[in-house]
Amino acid sequence: MRISNGTVGLPPRAAPDARDSKDDHKARQDHQIRTYRELIGIAEEVIESARAALRHTRKARGKDMITDLAIAEARNEIEHFCGLGNRVIDQSRRRVLNGEQVPTVPRSRDGRVGS
Protein backbone atom coordinates (compact mmCIF):
# COMPACT_ATOMS: atom_id res chain seq x y z
CA MET A 1 0.00 0.00 0.00
CA ARG A 2 1.31 3.47 -0.88
CA ILE A 3 0.93 6.18 1.71
CA SER A 4 0.25 9.77 0.58
CA ASN A 5 3.93 10.75 0.98
CA GLY A 6 4.95 7.98 -1.45
CA THR A 7 6.34 5.54 1.11
CA VAL A 8 5.18 1.96 1.31
CA GLY A 9 3.56 0.72 4.49
CA LEU A 10 0.78 -1.27 6.01
CA PRO A 11 -2.73 0.12 6.10
CA PRO A 12 -3.80 1.43 9.50
CA ARG A 13 -5.43 -1.22 11.66
CA ALA A 14 -8.93 -0.36 12.73
CA ALA A 15 -9.70 -0.39 16.41
CA PRO A 16 -11.70 -3.39 17.60
CA ASP A 17 -15.40 -2.74 17.25
CA ALA A 18 -18.58 -4.49 18.26
CA ARG A 19 -18.10 -7.06 15.47
CA ASP A 20 -14.84 -8.28 16.97
CA SER A 21 -15.52 -11.12 19.30
CA LYS A 22 -13.67 -11.58 22.53
CA ASP A 23 -12.19 -14.74 21.03
CA ASP A 24 -10.72 -12.78 18.10
CA HIS A 25 -9.23 -10.24 20.48
CA LYS A 26 -7.81 -12.99 22.69
CA ALA A 27 -6.33 -14.79 19.68
CA ARG A 28 -4.60 -11.57 18.50
CA GLN A 29 -3.33 -10.91 22.01
CA ASP A 30 -2.00 -14.48 22.35
CA HIS A 31 -0.28 -14.17 18.96
CA GLN A 32 1.28 -10.85 20.00
CA ILE A 33 2.57 -12.35 23.25
CA ARG A 34 4.09 -15.37 21.44
CA THR A 35 5.71 -13.05 18.91
CA TYR A 36 7.14 -10.78 21.60
CA ARG A 37 8.53 -13.75 23.52
CA GLU A 38 10.29 -14.93 20.37
CA LEU A 39 11.63 -11.46 19.56
CA ILE A 40 12.83 -10.95 23.15
CA GLY A 41 14.68 -14.26 22.95
CA ILE A 42 16.37 -13.22 19.71
CA ALA A 43 17.31 -9.82 21.13
CA GLU A 44 18.78 -11.46 24.24
CA GLU A 45 20.90 -13.75 22.04
CA VAL A 46 22.16 -10.79 20.01
CA ILE A 47 23.07 -8.84 23.14
CA GLU A 48 24.83 -11.85 24.65
CA SER A 49 26.82 -12.32 21.42
CA ALA A 50 27.82 -8.65 21.48
CA ARG A 51 28.89 -8.89 25.11
CA ALA A 52 30.88 -12.06 24.33
CA ALA A 53 32.64 -10.15 21.56
CA LEU A 54 33.45 -7.41 24.07
CA ARG A 55 34.90 -9.99 26.47
CA HIS A 56 37.00 -11.60 23.73
CA THR A 57 38.34 -8.27 22.49
CA ARG A 58 38.98 -6.68 25.88
CA LYS A 59 42.75 -6.66 25.33
CA ALA A 60 42.67 -6.03 21.57
CA ARG A 61 45.17 -3.45 20.36
CA GLY A 62 45.69 -1.87 16.98
CA LYS A 63 48.86 -1.15 15.09
CA ASP A 64 48.86 2.50 16.13
CA MET A 65 47.20 4.95 18.50
CA ILE A 66 44.49 5.93 15.98
CA THR A 67 43.44 2.30 15.60
CA ASP A 68 43.48 1.85 19.39
CA LEU A 69 41.12 4.84 19.71
CA ALA A 70 38.83 3.43 17.00
CA ILE A 71 38.71 0.05 18.76
CA ALA A 72 37.92 1.71 22.08
CA GLU A 73 35.16 3.82 20.50
CA ALA A 74 33.62 0.78 18.78
CA ARG A 75 33.67 -1.13 22.07
CA ASN A 76 31.99 1.84 23.83
CA GLU A 77 29.28 1.98 21.18
CA ILE A 78 28.63 -1.76 21.42
CA GLU A 79 28.32 -1.49 25.21
CA HIS A 80 25.99 1.52 24.85
CA PHE A 81 23.69 -0.29 22.42
CA CYS A 82 23.69 -3.41 24.60
CA GLY A 83 22.38 -1.21 27.42
CA LEU A 84 19.68 0.25 25.18
CA GLY A 85 18.73 -3.24 24.02
CA ASN A 86 18.40 -4.43 27.62
CA ARG A 87 16.15 -1.46 28.34
CA VAL A 88 13.91 -2.26 25.37
CA ILE A 89 13.73 -5.92 26.42
CA ASP A 90 12.81 -4.96 29.98
CA GLN A 91 10.11 -2.52 28.87
CA SER A 92 8.68 -4.99 26.35
CA ARG A 93 8.57 -7.73 28.94
CA ARG A 94 6.87 -5.45 31.44
CA ARG A 95 4.43 -3.79 29.03
CA VAL A 96 3.45 -6.67 26.75
CA LEU A 97 4.06 -9.82 28.77
CA ASN A 98 3.26 -8.50 32.26
CA GLY A 99 0.69 -5.86 31.27
CA GLU A 100 2.36 -3.12 33.34
CA GLN A 101 2.05 0.59 32.69
CA VAL A 102 5.71 1.58 32.22
CA PRO A 103 6.30 5.34 32.29
CA THR A 104 8.08 6.86 29.32
CA VAL A 105 11.42 8.55 29.79
CA PRO A 106 11.42 12.32 29.19
CA ARG A 107 13.47 13.31 26.13
CA SER A 108 14.79 16.59 24.83
CA ARG A 109 13.94 17.95 21.38
CA ASP A 110 16.96 16.20 19.87
CA GLY A 111 15.89 12.83 21.31
CA ARG A 112 18.34 12.60 24.18
CA VAL A 113 17.12 10.99 27.37
CA GLY A 114 16.89 13.27 30.41
CA SER A 115 18.24 16.38 28.65
Parts with pLDDT < 50 across at least 5 consecutive residues: none
Distance between the termini: 38 Å
Most strands sheet: none
The average pLDDT score comes to 85
Shape: elongated
Q: What does the secondary structure layout of this molecule look like, with pairings?
A:
Blueprint: H1 22-56, H2 65-97
Helix pairs in contact: 1-2
Summarize the structure.
The protein is mainly alpha-helical. It has helices at residues 22-56, 65-97. The protein has a domain at 24-97.
Explain what this protein looks like in three dimensions:
The protein has 2 helices and no strands. The chain has 115 residues and is an all-alpha fold. The protein has a domain of 74 residues. Helix 1 packs antiparallel against helix 2. The chain is elongated. The two termini are 38 Å apart.
Write out key terms for the chains shown.
115 residues; mainly alpha; 2 helices; 0% strand; elongated
